[in-house]
Fold:
Amino acid sequence: MEPRFEDVAALDVDPASARIYAEGWQSWSVTGALPLAETPYRVTLPNSLVIDCHYGSAPDEGVFRGEGLLAVDPGDGGSVHVFGAASAETAASRVPVIEARPYGGRVVIASDAPVEHTEHQGGLEAALAHWGTGFAEQAGVRLRPSPTVWCSWYQYFSQVTQEDVAENLTAMDELALPVDVVQIDDGYQAAPGDWLTSSGRFDDLPGLIRRIREHGRRAGIWIAPMIVACKSTLFAAHPEWLVTDPAGGDPVFAGDVLGDSCVALDLTHPGAAEYLADVLRTMRGWGVDYFKIDFVYAGALEGRRHEDVTGVAAYRHGLRLIREAIGPEAYLLGCGAPILPSVGMVDAMRVGPDIAAYWQNPSAHPSEPSQANATRNTVARAWQHGRFWINDPDCLMLRPEVERREDWARTVERYGGLRASSDRLRGLDEWGLETTRRLLTPAEPTPLV
Structure:
C-alpha cells in the first residue's frame, strides 16, 4: 500500500540552517533531526521495509518522512513548524504519513491524511515537547515509575538456559545489586507462537519464576505476541488465525526475525485472541508481573482480518487484549512497537534499535543493533519520556569486552528512563559492577525535556 499525498504547507527556509525532525514508525525506525541540506536515509532492504516502515513503503530519494509527526526548525530562532496527527483519537485508527520535500529555499509538506499544523517558539525540543504534552493528554496517558531490571538477552541471546538465569539470580544477592525484576528473554519457548512449549533449555519455567519471587524479586518475561513462526505448531494448526494478503490469500509476511520466517497473528479473530489471552493469563498465574512485548509492529501490518479494520486499529485492539489478560498492575514494556498508536497503552517503550557490543554495526544499517543507532534514537526521542511513557534506551552492557562501554553508560545515565542490566553479573569487572550498581535506579516519569 502506497500513501497518496496532498500538499499541506510550503515554508521558505534557509537550507544552510534548517533542520527536519521526522518521527519513525516504530521503536527501531530511524528517528532524529537532520539538516535540510542532508540526504535522509532511505530504506531499501525488503526485510527492513516490512519491519521499519509503515505500509512497507519508503519515500522517494531525498524526501524526509515522518510517521504521524514531522517538524521543521528554520534554525534562525524563528518559529518551529510542527505537523502532527490531528488528534490521538484519529491516530488510533490511522497514523498520517507526512513528508517534507526540499526545493532549494523552500520545503513543501504533504500528508496522506489530515494533520494539524502548529508553530512554537523556543527551539525544536521545546516544540516537540509541547506537541507531545497535548497528544498525551488526549490519549489519556497515566504515568508510573519503572522498576530496575536484569535481562538475559544480551549475554545469552536465544541460547539462554534455566541455569543461566538461576546463576545470575544468586549473583544479584551476593553482589547486592538493586534488581527489582528478573526478566527471562527469548529462548524459553519452542518457537514464536508456541509460547507454552519449552525450547528444552527450561525444565521448569514456573518453578524458576517461583524461585525468583522467593528471592524477593519480581519475575518478568519476554514475548512476541503478534508474530507466528512458520515452523511453529501454531502456524500449522491454525492458518485461519493469520493475517492474509487480500489479493492472494497467503499469510502476511512479518519479517525474517529471531532466525525464523514469521507472519502476523490476527488478534481480531476470537480464536487467536483467546489463545493469546490464555497464554498471558497462564504466565500471570505463574507469578509473572512484568511483560516485555516485542516485534509488535506485526500487529499493525495491513491485510485481511476476521474484522474489517485498519492495521493500526487491529494493533490497538491487540494491546487492549494484552492489558486485560495481564491486569492493570502488571508492568508492560513495548518494543518494536509503532510509536503513536502505543501512546496511552504501555507503561514503558523502547525508543531505539537494540544495543550491541560494538559501536557501529558492520552493515551500517541505521536500524540494526549498535550503540551508535541506539544512541541516535535515544537522544532524538528524549522528549517522549515523562509524557508518553517511561523511555527505554535499552540495556546496560558493561562487561569488559563491550566497545565504548563508558559512552553507553553515560548515554543511559543522561537519557535513560527504564534501567536494565544485561551482563553475566559475575563477568563484570570492578568498573562494570560499580557502574551497574550505581545506574540501576527506578525511573520516575519526570520529563527530560
